[in-house]
C-alpha cells in the first residue's frame, strides 16, 4: 500500500505529496508492445498490398493502351489505303466514283476514319509517354461513331459493286471491292478498340 509523504512547505506547514505512480507490470507492457508491433506490421502489409495492386493496375492499363494504339494505327493505315483506292477511280463514263452516292459515302467515311484513327493513335502514344493511361469517354464514343460510319458505308457500297462485278470485272470494280474490304477491316479494328475502351471505363469507374 502506498503511503503519503509529508514535507515542510512555506511557513513550516507540512504539505502531503502524492505517492509515485507504480511501475507497469511486465506482462502488460509486453502485451502492449506486441499489439503495437502487430498493428504496425498489418499497416505495412496493407501498404505493400496497395502498392502491388496499383502497380498491377498500371501495367494492365499500359498493356490495354498499347493494344488500342496498335488497333487505331492499323485502322488509320487501312482507311488511308481505302481512300486512295476510291479516289483513284476516275476512268471516265460509268467508271467514275463521283457518279454514285454509295461510293462518295464510302470515301467520306474512309477519310473520317483515317483522320480520327491517326489523331487518336497519336494521342494514345503521347499518353503512354507521359505515363497517363486513364480512359476517356471520348475514346469510347468516338470509336463507336466512326466504326458505325465505316460499317454503314461499306454495307451501302457492297450491293452496287456486286451488281457491277456480275456484268464486268475490271480495275474499277476491283478497286471498289478492295476499298469495301478495307472498310470492313477498319471497322473491326475500331470496334475492338471501342470494346477495350468500354471495359477500361467500367473498370475505372468501379
Automatic annotation (TrEMBL):
Record's GO cellular component terms: plasma membrane
Protein name: CASP-like protein
Domain Casparian strip membrane protein: 63-189
Membrane topology annotation: Multi-pass membrane protein
Pfam families cross-referenced by the UniProt entry: CASP_dom
Region Disordered, residue ranges: 1-28
Subcellular location: Cell membrane
Family: Belongs to the Casparian strip membrane proteins (CASP) family.
Quaternary context: Homodimer and heterodimers.
Species of the source: Eragrostis curvula
Transmembrane segments: 66-85, 105-125, 145-164, 176-199
Biased composition (Pro residues): 17-26
Keywords: Cell membrane, Membrane, Transmembrane, Transmembrane helix
